[in-house]
Amino acid sequence: MTENVQKVNVNVAGGYNPAIVNLKKDVPAEITFTRTNEHGCLDIVHSKDLNFETKLPLNQAETVKIATDKVGEFDFSCGMDMFHGKVVIK
Questions:
Q1: Which residues, at least 6 apart from 81, have a Cβ–Cβ distance to it below 8 Å?
Q2: Cα four-point dihedral sign 33, 28, 73, 52
Q3: pTM of the model
Q4: Which CATH class is domain 6-89?
């Protein structure tokens, strides 16, 4: 059985591209972060709202599963909270 999963790729290089990730409510989701820049604080991405924190090794894809059971806007940021992104669930 094939599971329907929303998949989004985010490039991490001097910020997040895209900085806003749009997801549908109640559809499983994964965001894959790939850091392509050596900027120090971008080596971690975390979100208190979405309950994740992960290290981002240079030039390696790291995937985070996102719960989509709540509608709203949820922030994520680098380890020093200097660079920000947002997950919007509708």
A1: none
A2: negative
A3: 0.93
A4: mainly beta
